[in-house]
Specification:
The chain is an alpha/beta fold. It is built from 13 helices and 17 strands. The chain has helices spanning 10-18, 22-27, 38-43, 57-64, 97-107, 124-127, 131-145, 162-178, 197-208, 228-246, 250-255, 274-286, 327-333; strands spanning 46-47, 68-75, 85-86, 90-91, 111-117, 149-153, 183-189, 215-219, 257-262, 264-265, 271-272, 291-295, 365-366, 371-374, 377-381, 385-386, 398-403. The strands form four sheets. Strands 1, 2, 3, 4, 5, 6, 7, 8, 9 and 12 form a ten-stranded mixed sheet that branches. A three-stranded antiparallel sheet has the order 14-15-17, with no helix packed on it. Strand 14 and strand 15 form a beta hairpin. The radius of gyration is 20 Å and the shape is globular.
């Protein structure tokens, strides 16, 4: 565990917010742009801009009509502290790479939301001392990029930490108050019953703080799901949880409910094809749901071979598809019609296998970020590991970076 430490700028940032100037600063941030409709932020698929072989957002926009992207993930520094970074390693304060991606998207009339948390790494809610300092850290992200939307992806292991969740929900409430019009989504794990015990505790924390985001979204994958019917069943059950927790009627609960899927083969070997996305999309639109998104655009392209040898990848879907097939469902949810043909004469190529990293050794000790090759794939360590075979477990310490 890293020690909890308040951000040095927390008090100053909270004072600034109380004076009502924080949102003004954000609106004049470098690269700020006119906001899209909330429906576009609700439809924004996840994109890792610095990892997992990032695709060109401009090419996706041209091919699909997509306008909004959910950039992932903001974390605490790997070495500890209460300042925002991309992936635990790249400080937001000195970032130019992600800013360049955002500028390119905005130059084509699009925009971005930024996602906080995700699976793995240390979250700011765990590292910051309280909700105010957590909010101050996130305000740096909003101000730097002139954001109109933000996503709190609250899942393992953070959502098992009641103090951290109290900080995250409190921070979300502060940001919502200090940035009028900010679109806020909260994403958490899905189960067949809707969400699990920790997800329900998170909802109760939101209720206790009087916080209502634009939506609470569940991720109905990696939990015994397979196909659209299991997902729509979970969404129905989650609606009942929202009703009972907040005292909403069914329609109000759906208007505050979202879906966050995984395209192709999930981490645990479930499969979600294009037809499944269409079924869930029909459910979401017919029930007046607020959000429809997926993980991830980095994976929205065909592997080579298409099934990727029966493995899950961070850079392709492991199902037969055309590039950006799944992004087109987000475009439909936003209310737009995807182009029937791509504007370029050649399709987006399947990523060329990269050169292989040094071979994995059973006796070596690896720490987070170390890269190896095994079974003609490159792998990156998520955390400290020794003698754990890459790919042996879907939930193991190795992230598949694709064929080499």
């Amino acid at each position: 565990m890293r020690p909890l430490r308040a951000c040095l700028s927390a008090a100053a940032a909270v004072t600034l917010a109380a004076a009502g100037t924080t949102a003004l600063v954000a609106s004049h941030a470098s690269g700020a742009t006119t906001a899209l409709s909330n429906r576009w932020y609700a439809a924004a698929p996840y994109l890792m801009p610095l990892d997992n072989d990032p695709p060109d957002p401009a090419a996706i926009m041209d091919a699909t009509g997509l306008k909004a992207f959910q950039l992932a993930f903001i974390l605490a520094p790997n070495g500890g502290g209460c300042s925002p970074t991309w992936g635990g390693t790249a400080p937001v304060s000195s970032d130019t790479a992600v800013q360049s991606t955002i500028n390119a998207i905005r130059a084509k009339g699009g925009d971005v939301s930024v996602s906080i948390g995700g699976y793995g790494g240390t979250k700011l809610g765990q590292s910051c001392a309280d909700a105010a300092s957590t909010a101050a850290a996130y305000q740096q992200v909003i101000t730097k990029y002139g954001l109109h939307a933000i996503d709190f992806d609250l899942e393992e292991p953070e959502y098992e930490n009641t103090a951290a969740i109290k900080n995250e929900i409190g921070a979300a409430r502060i940001l919502q108050q200090n940035n009028p019009g900010l679109y806020v989504s909260v994403t958490t794990a899905g189960t067949a019953d809707g969400t699990g015990w920790f997800g329900k505790q998170m909802l109760l924390e939101a209720k206790s703080q009087g916080f209502t985001p634009n939506n609470f979204s569940i991720m109905p994958f990696d939990g015994g799901f397979n196909g659209a019917a299991s997902q729509t069943g979970a969404l129905t059950n989650f609606n009942s949880i929202l009703q009972s927790t907040f005292g909403w009627d069914q329609a109000t609960a759906y208007a505050h409910e979202g879906f966050s899927g995984m395209n192709g083969r999930s981490d645990t070997g479930e499969y979600f094809a294009q037809a499944d996305f269409q079924t869930v999309l029909d459910y979401a639109t017919s029930h007046g749901m607020d959000r429809f998104t997926f993980w991830s655009l980095n994976r929205d392209r065909q592997c080579s071979p298409p099934d990727n040898g029966g493995r899950t990848s961070g850079t392709c879907s492991s199902v037969t598809q055309n590039s950006w097939d799944f992004a087109k469902y987000s475009v439909k949810f936003a209310g737009a019609t995807p182009p029937t043909t791509t504007p370029t004469p050649t399709p987006t190529p399947t990523p060329t296998p990269s050169s292989c990293k040094p071979a994995w050794s059973s006796s070596a000790v690896y720490t987070q970020g170390n890269e190896v090759s095994y079974d003609k794939h490159n792998w990156k360590a998520k955390w400290w590991t020794q003698n754990e075979v890459p790919g042996a477990s879907e939930w193991g310490p190795w992230q598949d970076e694709g064929a080499c």
